[in-house]
């Protein structure tokens, strides 16, 4: 813990200095910038007197995230002339991996995209043969919009062909403004714009469920972002067997988007897959089967029992968000279990006193 | 309390009207993340802020909200190589002590001037070229005004930008200083409250007091030693040295302010880290 | 298009089963927490202090989870009454919601349009408050110091920091609590018999009517009648198809995403005695579901603000019941705060007592 405080830096704090001879004892990472210090004779009496150190005039040649390697090569000659300082530009903890020094910000509302991240976003614009996806589901969010090009989606029916102009005109039939989609980051452009795609069968439009948002910092990077809370978590031990048979209790799917969107829906029951696959032969592509399943899921009503479970999971995510704990399947499960054991009504789960109690298990 | 005259400000025991010594700043508290971010649990946006901070210096209370970086709506407004910084300072009608006054931020000249000053001060520090073609909006709401609202606004804006995770060259800290010569004795004081400002400048706000008084709000980047903003509307009878002395005192005040702000940011960072790891009984709740 | 039709569908279906997306029933309110000048203890956990020292009264409505945060300040001064109401005090309301961004704002494309929408929203809220709450807010006759000469003017300033659905409800709550916490010093006028010619008989310059102001703050009282200040309950009416006709039902205290799905909204102001003080219908939420519209005509989901006539009386009755619950909720909050916070467990303030408070 003390080491964390020790590692905590503020903007403007010097992280490392290097002399010109060693040609940079550090590599600049995210959240920092480099400054060249050139000692000059200073004629400002006042500045030096007030501070008591010799930070007089800087010749500020700064390198930050925007520069690419080619620029560096040209400036290398001039850079070598002065010692360099690596200064933090964010408030956060310092991470050193060999020579790479970067600052991880503590502010949890920042989302920086990386290739391969799962994003749950809302379509806010259609046009120019691409969709614009809002990454924070809000208009004034802290990140720009991602772009989902037409070439990045699967055409209905799973056909693989070149996109024609008819496809461009029919874009709205695939995704309209306001739809929620799950997609993956394909590429991060130089200015930070994310290029997305839904080319895998797991991604696509999200329907018949609940969305809730949390700060992106609370959703950590994991191996798998499509999680399932199994039905047996919801069944209390020693519960009476008064389950009505025609009300299916099933599993709850939770998709943890790294931009902070969390999508909760019921899991497509395996019985459907079996009935669907009755006539499965190798000629019917998997994409089509999945599409049919999705449509069935979207059009089938959700039973009351499932709604209760979904609402419980949603409130569990809310509780975790309120105490700023990491959102992961284990923590959600623990909160759900705690709520069932304490016999809390779902609607009361977000009252302050219950929030504290239910998240006890997440704190040691 | 007797009517306040300039000579009464410094009483015999060298305490000011609110009991401070001349070199003490007011009690300052900072709260990062006073209005936590947009992602607040609903599927739709209810408020679009990425960072916020609440700063109170004495009785002056200022709330600052940062939005962005986000896309600029109009192509004509976007700059190709850097972000556009938009700053708005607003007051609530109940902020001035005494009469309630509604100030429209688009027409009140004092507010426009302060917005502009704040924008200049912050542009010196934010690394705008990291976000080309985007816009960062800083909105400052003055909840209570007991003098020094520009300085409190600058401090709050710095904290809010840090809370939003926008990279800064350095923290911008602001403090004010002033000088009276009363009865042949020169006294330089730091962090003036409203009464002292009124006495120093002859009327509320700035501008044209009698000579021998100086009121100087200053904003600096303490770790780099740069002065970002200094605004003096008084006539300097003592010459340039007088200005230098008051500036020194103001910069010391900024240093003190920076220490308080740094401590607040560190505490919050430690708390957030602990909460994320689930390691402690610290609970951060909005 | 702020929300997709499928999400709207889910929300409406859930409400139909009396189990909303966050588990509440149709008529249940969210756990608002109130802090006013008198009970600062519950506000210790949160940054924005509810006691505005420079105002006569203040309150803060806060919904845990930071989705709703509204500040209210009440400042009082003495003015001449308006000529057509010489025996009544004045209450002025102003709303500022510049920090609350949001929902109605379509896109950043036009900054001017955004500002206009903000202002429109503010003025809508102000005028609705003016009509529904202000006429019954306090006992106006009791605000008179000297008839025709001096009356109290209470300026209520509401600042919406952020809001998640039902702005009007929360503003009305803030206003009520602010008025109840306002402390007015006792002022009485000294009437002289010879004031007809306007000369002052005492040593130079004193005005016609002297005012005696009671300086002891312990003798200051809230404006009389503030206890009777009404609250507003906004009911959102959702329409769902059921067996070839549309069923309308109403929910109380809708969240933003539920409000968007509403086909129309009704604001009812109810005072603590259960009397309805005003009813106002607003339009719908804004999403349009073409499939529904085709099936049922324009009456389906959408921006249409129509509802069946017999709905209205049912709505008002429901509002009365919901308002009673809300009053109970608010009172219990207030009592919990008044009794020193070690005992009671509502609000975060108590819970954080043993834990680190970030300052």
Automatic annotation (TrEMBL), chain A:
A biological-process GO annotation: rRNA processing
Q: State the source organism's domain of life.
A: Eukaryota
Compartments annotated for it: namely: Nucleus
Establish whether keyword rRNA processing is in the entry.
yes
Q: Which residues form the signal peptide?
A: none
**What keywords appear on the UniProt entry?**
Exosome, Nucleus, RNA-binding, rRNA processing
Q: Name one Pfam family in it.
A: S1_RRP4
Where mainly located? Answer: nucleus
What are this entry's molecular-function GO terms? RNA binding
Family under the similarity heading: Belongs to the RRP4 family.
The protein in question is named RRP4 S1 domain-containing protein
Upper lineage: Eukaryota, Sar, Stramenopiles, Ochrophyta, Bacillariophyta
TrEMBL record, chain B:
SUPFAM superfamilies xref list: Ribonuclease PH domain 2-like, Ribosomal protein S5 domain 2-like
Highest taxon above the source species: Eukaryota
Q: Spell out the Pfam families in the cross-references.
A: RNase_PH
Residues in Exoribonuclease phosphorolytic domain copies: 24-167
Q: Which Gene3D superfamilies match?
A: GHMP Kinase, N-terminal domain (3.30.230.70)
Q: What family does the database annotate? A: Belongs to the RNase PH family.
Name this protein carries in UniProt = Exoribonuclease phosphorolytic domain-containing protein
Tell me which species this is from.
Cyclotella atomus
TrEMBL record, chain C:
Q: Report if keyword Calcium is assigned.
A: no
> GO terms for CC?
cytoplasm; exosome (RNase complex); nucleolus
Q: Which residue numbers delimit the Exoribonuclease phosphorolytic domain?
A: 55-178, 250-292
Where in or outside the cell it occurs: the entry states: Cytoplasm; Nucleus, Nucleolus
One matching Pfam family: RNase_PH
Entry keyword set:
Cytoplasm, Exosome
Q: Does the keyword Cytoplasm apply?
A: yes
Entry-linked Gene3D superfamilies: GHMP Kinase, N-terminal domain
Q: Which InterPro entries match?
A: ExoRNase_PH_dom1, ExoRNase_PH_dom2, ExoRNase_PH_dom2_sf, Exosome_comp_Rrp42_subfam, PNPase/RNase_PH_dom_sf, Ribosomal_Su5_D2-typ_SF
| The family this protein is said to belong to | Belongs to the RNase PH family.
Q: Write down what this protein is called.
A: Ribosomal RNA-processing protein 42
């Amino acid at each position: 813990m003390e080491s964390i405080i020790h590692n905590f830096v503020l903007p403007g704090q010097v992280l490392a200095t290097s002399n010109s001879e060693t040609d940079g004892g550090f590599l600049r990472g995210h959240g920092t910038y480099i400054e060249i210090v050139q000692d000059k004779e200073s004629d400002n009496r006042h500045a030096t007197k007030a501070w008591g150190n010799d930070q007089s005039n800087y010749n500020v040649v700064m390198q930050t995230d925007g520069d690419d390697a080619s620029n560096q090569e040209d400036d290398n000659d001039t850079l070598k002339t002065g010692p360099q300082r690596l200064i933090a530009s964010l408030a956060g903890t310092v991470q050193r991996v060999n020579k790479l020094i970067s600052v991880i910000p503590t502010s949890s509302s920042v989302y920086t995209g990386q290739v391969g991240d799962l994003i749950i976003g809302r379509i806010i614009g259609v046009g120019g043969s691409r969709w614009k996806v809002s990454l924070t589901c809000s208009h004034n969010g802290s990140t720009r919009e991602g772009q989902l090009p037409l070439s990045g989606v699967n055409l209905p029916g799973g056909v693989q062909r070149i996109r024609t102009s008819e496809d461009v005109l029919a874009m709205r039939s695939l995704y309209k403004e306001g739809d929620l989609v799950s997609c993956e980051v394909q590429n991060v452009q130089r200015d930070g714009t994310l290029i997305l795609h839904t080319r895998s069968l797991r991604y696509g439009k999200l329907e018949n469920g609940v969305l809730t948002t949390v700060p992106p910092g609370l959703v950590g990077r994991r191996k798998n972002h499509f999680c399932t809370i199994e039905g047996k978590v919801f069944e209390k031990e020693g519960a009476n067997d008064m389950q009505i048979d025609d009300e299916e209790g099933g599993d709850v799917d939770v998709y943890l988007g790294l931009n902070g969107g969390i999508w909760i829906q019921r899991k497509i029951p395996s019985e459907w897959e079996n009935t669907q696959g009755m006539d499965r032969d190798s000629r019917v592509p998997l994409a089509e089967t999945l599409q049919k399943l999705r449509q069935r899921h979207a059009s089938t009503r959700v039973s009351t029992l499932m709604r209760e479970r979904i609402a419980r999971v949603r409130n569990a995510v809310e509780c975790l968000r309120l105490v700023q704990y990491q959102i992961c399947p284990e923590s959600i499960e623990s909160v759900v279990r705690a709520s069932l054991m304490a016999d809390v009504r779902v609607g009361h789960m977000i009252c302050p006193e219950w929030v504290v109690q239910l998240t006890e298990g997440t704190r040691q | 309390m007797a009517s306040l005259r300039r000579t009464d400000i410094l009483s015999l025991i060298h305490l000011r009207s609110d009991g401070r010594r001349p070199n003490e700043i007011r009690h300052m508290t900072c709260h990062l993340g006073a209005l936590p971010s947009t992602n607040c649990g609903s599927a739709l946006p209810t408020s679009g802020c990425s960072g916020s901070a609440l700063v109170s210096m004495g009785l002056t209370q200022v709330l600052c909200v940062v939005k962005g970086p986000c896309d600029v709506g109009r192509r004509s407004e976007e700059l190709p190589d850097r972000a556009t910084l938009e700053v708005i300072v607003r007051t609530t009608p109940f902020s001035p002590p005494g009469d309630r006054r509604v100030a429209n931020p688009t027409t009140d000249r004092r507010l426009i001037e302060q917005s502009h000053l704040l924008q200049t001060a912050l542009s010196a520090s934010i690394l705008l070229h990291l976000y080309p073609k985007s816009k960062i909006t800083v909105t400052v709401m003055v909840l209570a005004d007991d003098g020094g609202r520009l300085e409190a606004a600058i401090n709050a804006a710095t904290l809010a930008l840090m809370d939003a995770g926008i990279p800064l060259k350095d923290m911008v800290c602001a403090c004010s200083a002033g000088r009276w010569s009363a009865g042949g004795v020169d006294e330089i004081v730091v962090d003036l409250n409203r009464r002292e400002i009124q006495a120093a400048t002859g009327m509320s706000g700035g501008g044209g007091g009698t000579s021998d008084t100086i009121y100087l709000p200053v904003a600096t980047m303490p770790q780099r030693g740069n002065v970002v903003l200094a605004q003096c509307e008084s006539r300097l009878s003592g010459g340039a040295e007088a200005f230098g002395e008051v500036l020194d005192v103001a910069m010391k005040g900024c240093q003190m302010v920076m220490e308080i702000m740094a401590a607040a940011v560190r505490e919050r960072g430690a708390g957030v880290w602990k909460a994320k790891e689930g390691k402690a009984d610290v609970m951060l709740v909005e | 298009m702020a929300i997709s039709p499928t999400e709207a569908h889910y929300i409406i279906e859930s409400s139909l089963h009396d189990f909303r997306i966050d588990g509440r029933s149709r008529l249940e309110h969210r756990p608002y927490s109130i802090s006013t000048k008198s009970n600062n203890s519950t506000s210790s956990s949160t940054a924005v202090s509810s006691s505005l020292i420079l105002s006569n009264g203040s309150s803060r409505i806060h919904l845990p989870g930071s989705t709703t945060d509204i500040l209210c300040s009440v400042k009082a001064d003495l003015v001449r009454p308006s000529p057509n109401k010489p025996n009544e005090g004045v209450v002025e309301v102003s709303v500022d919601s510049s920090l609350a961004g949001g929902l109605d704002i379509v896109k950043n494309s036009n900054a001017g349009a955004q500002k206009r929408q903000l202002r429109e929203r503010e003025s809508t809220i102000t005028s609705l408050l003016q009509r529904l709450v202000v006429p019954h807010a306090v006992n106006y006759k009791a605000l008179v110091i000297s008839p025709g000469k001096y009356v109290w003017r209470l300026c209520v300033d509401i600042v919406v920091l952020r809001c998640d659905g039902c702005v009007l409800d929360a503003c009305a709550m803030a206003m009520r609590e602010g008025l109840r916490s306002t402390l007015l010093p006792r002022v009485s006028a000294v009437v002289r018999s010879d004031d007809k010619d306007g000369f002052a008989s005492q040593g130079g310059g004193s005005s016609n009517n002297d005012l005696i102001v009671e300086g002891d703050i312990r003798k200051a009282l809230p404006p009389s009648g503030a206890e009777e200040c009404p609250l507003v309950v906004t009911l959102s009416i959702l329409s769902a198809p059921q067996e070839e006709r549309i069923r309308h039902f109403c929910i109380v205290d809708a969240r933003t995403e539920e409000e968007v799905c509403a086909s129309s909204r009704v604001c009812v102001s109810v005072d603590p005695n259960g009397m309805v003080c005003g009813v106002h219908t607003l339009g719908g939420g804004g999403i349009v579901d073409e499939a529904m519209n085709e099936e049922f005509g324009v009456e389906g989901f959408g921006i249409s603000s129509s509802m069946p006539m017999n709905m209205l009386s049912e709505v008002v009755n429901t509002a009365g019941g919901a308002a009673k619950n809300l009053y109970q909720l608010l009172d219990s909050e207030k009592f919990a705060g008044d009794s020193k916070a070690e005992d009671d467990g509502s609000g975060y303030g108590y819970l954080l007592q043993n834990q680190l408070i970030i300052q």
